[in-house]
Amino acid sequence: MKALLGKLEGDRVIWVIVAFLSLFSILAVYSSTGTLAYRYQAGNTEYYLVKHLVIMLLGLFLMFVAHKIKYTYYSRLSQLAVFIAVPLLIITLMMGTSINEANRWLTLPVINLTFQSSDFAKLALIMYVARLLTKKQDQIKDFKSAFLPVVLPVIVICALILPANLSTAIILFATAVVLMFIGRISVKYILALVLTGVVMLSVFMVVLLNSPDTGRLYTWKNRVENFINKEGAESYQTDQSKIAIATGGVAGKMPGNSVQRNFLPQAYSDFIYAIIVEEYGLIGGFVILMLYLILLFRGVRIAHRSPGSFGAFLAAGLTFSLVFQAMINMAVTVGLLPVTGQPLPLVSMGGTSLWFTSLAIGIILSVSRRVEELETEKGGEYAPA
User: In degrees, to the nearest 5, what angle opens at C-alpha 37 toward C-alphas 34 and 21?
Assistant: First the structure.
């Protein structure tokens, strides 16, 4: 064990955060999948735990490999990744596996593994935007030379994600806007982009609320109307989530004693935070929140101390994306936002989404590893000129 820990490089605090979130994940997934096990696995409650452990261990392995790769290599990899992501998203829209009237998944032949192409596209786009911002720094204030080349791939990929996964498209768009601001893109162009996005989203919402009750539009319409009117199937989920949080109290019911796991749909994924608060109380919920906020702080710190612009943009973009997703998941759980279907990073039971999250954290750690190497060479804390 000591030899293994000695091979872990990069920000030690992030490794500790990963360890704690993984521990919470194992305990919460095991507790929340009991009903699922009796429904589909003849009461074998260990089935989903073992499955989740295997997925998590593979994710940690991917994180380890990603953090050992020199972060500058991800600049070139981003070009290939975006080139692959666009056709994957198109194929997903046209002939992807449909679940809940959303073509989000692609099923790989032979191994029969399904994955969300949007998870891959999100990672690819953030890396690619970081690369473009780095390359365009000499003419970063120019509309034609800098702003258009950066914003076009953002619009294309977000537009391809939006029909099946609105919340992911919004998170990715918001992350890209933050990156453009950090990358010194002209504020007037960013404001114009944000204003255009808000107007388009408003028009979309008006069309949505007046659309016929068919397809994916119906799902979005239901979620918005149920959030406003506090009724319907989506409201049932948030009501059960609030009951779990309210009955958890300060100290919780202790691990494995959740009651609402038997009534709350997606207790093991989208609403796993509610189960954590029910079993570990507000103390447990606060710990989870603080872990993500510390991750945000460490990611920003790594970005600030990065030896190059690409590393700074890469660490900042991936960190913001993960923390945005976590905050949205927790906001949905407590009823501050409509149901989005966003899992809690590193905690919710999942497959390939957990792997892409692990890769993102591994890349952040790769940047921090280079910072540590420079600090060792200079014999003190490294600060870029």
Answer: 55
